[in-house]
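ok so heres the complex, two chains, lmk if somethin looks off
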Amino acid sequence: MPRFARPGIVAAAAAAIPVVFLGVFFAWPLAATLYRAMFAPGLAGQTTTVSARAVVQAAGTTLGLAGAGTALTLLIGLPAAWALYRRRWRGSRTLAAALTAPFVLPTMVVALAFLTLQRDLVPALGAGHGLPAIIAALAFFNVAVVLRTVGPALEGMDERLVAAARTLGASRAAAARRVVWPAIRRSVGGAAAITFLFSSTSFAIVLVLGGTRIQTLETAAYLELTSFLDLRGAALLALVQAGLVASVAMGVGWLARPGRYAFTHAAPLRPIARRRDAAAIALALTPAALLTLIPLGTLLAGSLRGARGPSLAAYRTLFGLSESGGGIASSVAASLWIAVVAAALALAVGVLAVAAAAVHPGARWVRALTVGPLAVSSVVVGVGLLVALAVPLRSWGSAGTYGLLVAAQALVATPLVVRVLAPVLDGISPLQSAAAATLGASPTRTVVRVVLPRMRGALSSAAGLAFAVAVGEFGASVFLARPGAPTLPTAIMRLLSRPGAENLATASAGAVVLAVIAGAAMMLAEGTRRQRA
Amino acid sequence: MTHGLRVHDVTVAYGGSHPRIAVDRASFSLDQGGSLALVGASGSGKSSLLLAIAGVIDSVGSVSWDQHDLASVPPHRRGFGLVFQDGQLFPHLSVGANIGFGLEMQGVGHRERAARVGELLDMVGLAGAQERAVTELSGGERQRVALARTLAPRPRLVLLDEPLSSLDADLRERLATEVRVLLEAHGTTWIVVTHDRSEAAAMAARQLTMSGGRLVESGDGVQG
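and the predicted structre for the whole thing:
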């Protein structure tokens, strides 16, 4: 960033919008939730029905599920990361891209995919109220986290370091233990912690696959609110969830802190796979490939199933073209425009927060504040907005509801926008701005001519990611969407709660449409980024 | 010849269905206690040949020591030490632990290891540097530690891959002589890979030139 004459004033002006937005739609709702949990009565006037024991049990279930999900993710993800990033072979890049793609899929899509898999192919996944299905779905998502986090560490490690150990007498196992493990240890810790964090906030997956029989803090809060109208109980559970996730998030920061030693190399020597490695690579990749491909295939097949063989009936019903009616075309349209507005808002807030921090170090806290919604889970964001703002905004009618949905989706997307933009802006050398200044460019001209052009790719990635996250957002939206005007993910949930194979097929078709929308947004954004890179 | 290294028709190819030949049927011998410089431009295949001899990359043809074929001997059992261009010191281990690594792999006890590490640090002019972090070392110091680490387990053959190319000219000239003296003092056999003919002459008794993956000519270096 160029040096402005009055950096403090410029930073304060840039920080104003993020601070007001996060203050009104995040900090205040969180404070209101805290107040409600501690002092206020429930919606129906009663005190809470939630016992301390139930809260502890729900916390235990949340942690247990997250632990099991993390263990399975590492078990499947680490061998796949080794096969894809430690050895070079034709097609490894394409397969890595395919296996990391599930990360941008909305949770509702993944939940539906595993529900279809359990009903059509592997009934055993439904044992124990769907516990195996939930754990497998958590791994489905998070294998991508392991590949994205551990992959670069493995890829950047120079094979000559291993060769040095080998020529000094280390066996394969000794070299792996003494040289490879120290190089990837921190990235494995980081991946495990992030997986644990995501697993403890996978509301849609637990709700769809386990129903309310598996009570995590999030599903218990949902149950309290929807079944017992106990807003105080829901607030209490949401608060415990926020505390738990915030502690885990701090653990993530500690485990993923930069290492004291740099093992990565600018141009590392990475060996080409030998013929005898082929069997090991295939063995290492098979579980990850099956875990990714089979559920998505089953979901697609489920959406194309008609009463008499394959048909597009579910899609016709989805878009209201069938005679029986019951379409959710309006939800698709509503989801699209709400997500567009939310993504634009998230992008504006993210850009201003990142810019403020870059202009003046005193504004770094604003950038840190934007991570808040990620650090408390989207259910907490939804409950908070409901507690603090639903009543005043209800008088605005549907405009109020849409406003809340936009705010909730923007809050959930903002941390990701900041995560994409901040490293790119930080990576632009200050010498570039200095060069522009010595060539006569004012600070504003420098931003327009030097900084922004370098940021275009990242801005397009951030916009695509923000849209994909917003359109698939479920955890907060389910508390805020009105029954008559659901978003696509909440409409899918409503279809699931109705009996009948036809409703399941329509829900599956909705999930496929949602996956296509989110995937297309990401691909479009990535395509634009590459063109501009 | 009965004692020493024999390389016969060694070929190294990279890539799957459209392989690139990096080393094309290279053959030469080196007597035990002798020294050889492989000289050639960047990409001529000299480093690949060195890595193939060490057994850390795949090759066809045969590499043997004292008439024993090494095809089925993994790199950690060959007794060949390798010094890399940029040292490749283990960043998470101290100078002393780096030098002692090979001895630890041989199961040498702590006390004996410490004595040998101290002796080697004296030899490379870094006495007392056991506890220093390798990330704090200068380029020249790093290469000295790398050489000490390679010599510690007393390898029968030392392979040096452009060991001085990352250093500035003055230091390179001084270290070339120092390294040769050290290797001779250890009574070891060595092959050094370099693109610099004067460095090759300073560091080895004999030279072979590589071009396009083939050994093309041979010559004698300056004896020293």
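quick notes: Chain B touches chain A through 34 residues (CB under 8 Å). thats all i got rn
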